[in-house]
């Protein structure tokens, strides 16, 4: 099993990252770090992850690698899909999400439970 709290802290330390939530394939939160989540981001990330998996089979499409949603506040929620875990990363407004993808997508994909 990966050291999920340590990985969460590493991702949180990247410039522009406000919060990270890691969920397993069933939508259970396995690790989190950063500002308090009063917006129920974990529920939203879980919904996107589980729905994506279901639609992938139905539509016969390849697995997504990431998704990005812009919140009304201007912050972005970047979702990185891995083999066993999904990471939702809340970013400050105007943070270059490509840098986050480049630095952490392969780490998220390789994380094991």
Largest sheet: 5 strands, antiparallel
Shape: globular
Q: Report the β-strand fraction as a percent range.
A: 25-35%
Number of helices: 3
Instruction: Write down how many β-strands occur, each being a DSSP E stretch of 2 or more residues.
Output: 5
Topology pattern, helix = H, strand = E: HEEHEEEH
Separation of the first and last Cα atoms: 5 Å
Sequence stretches where pLDDT stays below 50 over 5 or more residues: none
Query: Pairing-aware structural class of the strands and helices?
Result: alpha+beta
Query: What proportion of the residues is helical, as a percent range?
Result: 25-40%
Give the averaged pLDDT, no decimals: 89
The gyration radius over C-alpha positions equals: 13 Å
Strand order in space, largest sheet: 2-1-5-4-3
List the SSEs and their pairings.
Blueprint (H helix, E strand, L loop, with lengths): L3 H9 L4 E8 L4 E6 L6 H19 L6 E5 L5 E6 L3 E7 L5 H14 L3
Antiparallel strand pairs: 1-2, 1-5, 3-4, 4-5
Search tags:
113 residues, globular, 3 helices, five-stranded antiparallel β-sheet, alpha+beta
